[in-house]
Write a structure and sequence with these properties.
The chain is an alpha+beta fold. Helices cover 32% and strands 15% of the residues. It contains 18 helices and 17 strands.
């Protein structure tokens, strides 16, 4: 059992045994951590978990970024010495929150405080001080300055005291009063949209739950970005910025981030938008606060076409597909797993709220500082009711649609998981799925018969087998988003270490083997190791569209695909979809069935 697993076991036993009260022995060479003035080097706290009942605390000189702050700023992984370079994200969280005064005593701490931090202790929110931030934030990826500024201002404004009821934070009853008084001053021109926006304003308990009708003249520097399946996307600056809190002195809303960049997504044929379509937008609004979901601010209207437009957060790097095309050669295994984990977190949030995305593909995942899911129900035509009643009709991007959906079955969470599996293939390989064939009924038929994308590289078995679970023809055999999130986080944690174990984890071994194989293959073929070269078939369509296939065969798994227990490599995939499996001999003596244990959280 490796040292990091021992750490987790130790923490788990402590939690299950009642925490620090049952610990029988504590050894400490130094009971406080400090940064002395003068020439003395800052001290690095290192805690080594010896067992569930024993902890050894030492002070040593740091080799990298020192931990030289009061105890409450220590991230648990820093205390546990997981070899993270810093804990600035966790420290920033505490700096935006006032802790209980009786818990902090200068830079001094008791050893029990360390146990508390490692067991999940968080200082309580006090009075009007801002709420916490990044307590669960990935410690390896510190929030950017933009996000820090965003959250400081957002939480500070959200914590203002209401002059009427003397309550802190967002006051629903009082703020609803101000919103209601302003209803007569605006209209979208569509009664359903008006009612929807009004409902979000009257029911909001946080500022991010508020949506607005935003006149188009409140935007400037509008630039066309791209065309989607059922609309165009523009980049613009929003003059006012979003609502923060009611300014009682000026009798108006105090706003944050004026002239902020936003994305405007137009919806074709939306002049006659239906209530059913508004309900789809409601799905996005329901999870608007999640960091892995792109934020929705409101609705506006194109003054020329009269089509409605959704106002969203702007992602500077564009779609995940665009990000992969530009940055794939810079992505290591750890980064790929991390990005996939973020997507899984967003999908788990969607499913936890009993929602289904229905059109998950790399075009609907935007990349700014991290990957964010977008287009919750916004990929369909705004007037699509008549088309939806057509038997076997489906909207989406063919390669990402689960076979049972192609055959006309109802969408389920498992269909989203299938889409996530295709996305995982794409992130790992760098290639769009089925990029070299036409996306037509022939492809749909082959997918139902068991065709799945083939890798152009050797991939670790653990990853291959997880993808196979995603793409199983039987929806009941696919993992849940929660299970996927747990697995990917575990893998990311295994890779996120500078202290290599003598033997390494199973995933590390497989990655090393795959890298050696791929490097040798690329050298033999005179292909640069960082190249991402592919041509897209003229009939390959990666925007959402209306699809209607009849007489598709029953969904099944392909023996050719699922009986390969090592890798799934294709050298050639022709227009007729005849797969030429690689003749390269890949050594592996492990049985496919024994791999399932790695996928359990």
């Amino acid at each position: 059992m490796n040292s990091k697993l021992l750490i987790f076991v130790g923490l788990f036993v402590i939690l299950c045994s009642g925490g620090i009260s049952d610990c029988r022995e504590i050894q400490s060479k130094n009971s406080h951590c400090y940064y002395e003035d003068g020439d003395q080097e800052p001290k690095l706290l290192n805690v080594e978990w010896l067992s569930a009942s024993k902890i050894n605390v030492t002070v040593q000189s740091p080799t990298k970024d020192p931990v030289c702050n009061d105890t409450l700023t220590f991230a648990p992984e820093t205390i546990g010495h997981f070899s993270f370079d810093d804990h600035n994200g966790h420290r920033f969280k505490f700096k935006t929150q006032q802790p209980n005064a009786d818990w902090v005593n200068g830079y001094n701490f008791e050893i029990t405080d360390l146990y508390n931090v490692c067991n999940g202790f968080i200082p309580e929110h006090v009075g009007q001080n801002p709420y916490s931030y990044v307590v669960d934030y990935d410690p390896k990826k510190e929030p950017s300055k933009k996000h820090k500024s965003y959250y400081i201002n957002y939480q500070t404004m959200d914590s203002k005291m209401c002059e009427d009821c003397k309550k802190y934070d967002w006051c629903n009853s009082c703020n609803a009063k101000w919103f209601r008084r302003n209803f007569k001053n605006w209209t979208s021109g569509n009664n359903d949209i008006d009612k929807f926006i009004q409902h979000t304003q009257l029911s909001a308990n946080e500022c991010y739950e508020v949506l607005e009708w935003i006149p188009c003249d409140r935007f400037y520097d509008i630039k066309y970005i791209a065309k989607g399946g059922f609309g165009r996307v523009y980049r613009a600056n929003w003059i006012d910025g979003y609502i923060g809190y009611w300014d009682n002195e000026n009798k108006n809303w105090k706003r944050w981030d004026s002239s902020m960049e936003v994305a405007l997504k137009s919806l074709n044929n939306s002049k006659n938008v239906t209530l059913a379509f508004i309900n789809e937008i409601t799905s996005h609004h329901k999870i608007n606060e999640n960091a892995s979901i792109i934020r929705l601010y409101g609705i506006t209207q194109d003054p020329d076409t009269k089509n409605y437009m959704i106002v969203l957060d702007y992602a500077e790097n564009g779609s995940l597909r665009n990000y992969l095309d530009i940055n794939y050669d810079k992505l290591d295994w750890k980064t790929k797993i991390y990005d996939l984990w973020l997507i899984a977190c967003g999908l788990d949030e969607i499913h936890t709220n009993e929602l289904i995305h229905r059109d998950l593909h790399v075009g609907n995942i935007l990349y700014n500082d991290f990957a964010c899911i977008t287009d919750m129900g916004l990929s369909k035509p705004a007037d699509c009711n008549a088309l939806e009643n057509t038997k076997n009709s489906v909207y989406g991007v063919l390669p990402y649609i689960a076979p049972e959906i192609l055959r006309g079955q109802n969408y389920t969470k498992a269909a989203d998981i299938y889409s996530l599996g295709i996305i995982m293939y794409e992130v790992i390989s760098g290639l769009p799925p089925y990029h070299d064939v036409s996306h037509n009924e022939n492809l749909a038929m082959k997918i139902c018969q068991g065709l799945r994308p083939r890798f152009n590289i050797k991939v670790p078995q653990l990853i291959v087998h997880l993808i196979k679970r995603f793409l199983d023809a039987n929806p009941l055999n696919r993992p849940s988003a929660l299970e996927v999130k747990v697995i990917l986080f575990q893998w990311w944690h295994e890779l996120d270490t500078e202290e290599e174990e003598i033997n390494g984890t199973e995933l590390q071994k497989q990655i090393k083997e795959a890298d050696e194989f791929n490097n040798k293959l690329q050298a033999n073929n005179n292909v640069p190791s960082t190249s991402l070269l592919y041509e897209t078939h003229t009939g390959a369509i990666y925007t959402s569209r209306f699809l209607n296939f009849n007489r598709l065969p029953e969904s099944k798994n392909s023996d050719d695909y699922y009986n390969q227990y090592d890798n799934i490599i294709s050298i050639k995939c022709s227009e007729t979809l005849q797969i030429d499996i690689s003749q390269l001999k890949i050594n592996d003596d492990q049985n496919n069935e024994s791999k399932d244990e790695y996928y359990l959280p």
